[in-house]
């Protein structure tokens, strides 16, 4: 009877594994489809970016249409935000795919593992909860995208209203005359071109909104799949719990027969441990005694060496003091000689100054004589 229950449990787990694998492959296929849609969206975004640059250049060359530049720029910024949101959704979907792959691997490991089933099941439940939280975050992001799209529609309505006002203004300003008709025709063409560009932006906005809805539907599908996985995992947990309880019952019977023998083995082991502990303490005390004796002998030898060193240092101190006295005497002698030399230097400095003054005086006299000589030669000549 017990073997039959075990076989039935294994069959149910295999069926659950096949169902999970099928749903996992469906999720991967859905993700690949989303990636293709995102790639198409990226290509159309690049084309729209080129058109936007051309429109801005043309608006800047026409002064009357310059006031639309800020509105179109705001619409473009919103379009860029939508594109960034799409990329964020793709990253989130890839993250969910990675989590589902991890859950699949963990589930396969759970089917093959006989020990630690409860812990693995708990980890799987945590992974599922994490996946549910990720989907909730995606749904919140979808709500934010809806609000952004609403804002875009309001901005486009305001822009259309301003274009109508410009049309009326041009009709009032350009009434009558052939040149005025040509100017009006030119303005009309420019207005139609701008309206076409705005229509293109509306189409892009509609495509982005439709794509967001498709992504939202995919997220809802993933949410439903996660709920189904959670329910089926709960069933697997119940089957595993039953299997674990059955195995525990068998193990308890075996444990009860071995308990007495193990108790005796434990008592013998405790006595052996106590004997080994006492022997270890004795060995440690003997080692400490030997180390203390070695330290005492070493300290005695060190004290003898220190006393001998102190006597030697005392002799060196006396010799050093004698040398210091000799150095002091030599210093006094050098100091006296230095003072005498300074006095001699002072005298020589005074004589040098007198010599410089005499030299300057004789140079002045020589210059005067030269001047008188030149004057005399000039008179004689």
- Output the helix-strand order: HHHH
Number of E-type strands: 0
How much strand content do the residues show?
Answer: under 5%
Average pLDDT: 66
Taking all Cα atoms into account, the compactness measure Rg is 53 Å
- Spatial shape: flat
Instruction: Characterize the largest beta sheet: strand count, sense, and whether it forms a barrel.
Output: none
- Category from helices, strands and their pairing: mainly alpha
Organism: Diaphorina citri
Protein name: Cilia- and flagella-associated protein 58-like
Keywords: Coiled coil
Compact description:
With 381 residues, the protein is mostly helical. The chain has helices at 2-60, 68-112, 117-173, 178-380.
Short key terms for the protein model shown above:
single chain, 381 residues, mainly alpha, 4 helices, 96% helix, flat, disordered N terminus
How would you describe this protein?
The chain is mainly alpha-helical. It has a domain at 1-140. The protein is built from 4 helices and no strands. Helix 1 packs across helix 4 and helix 2 (68-112) runs antiparallel to helix 3 (117-173). It is flat and about 115 Å long. Mean pLDDT is 66; it is low at 1-7 and 16-21.
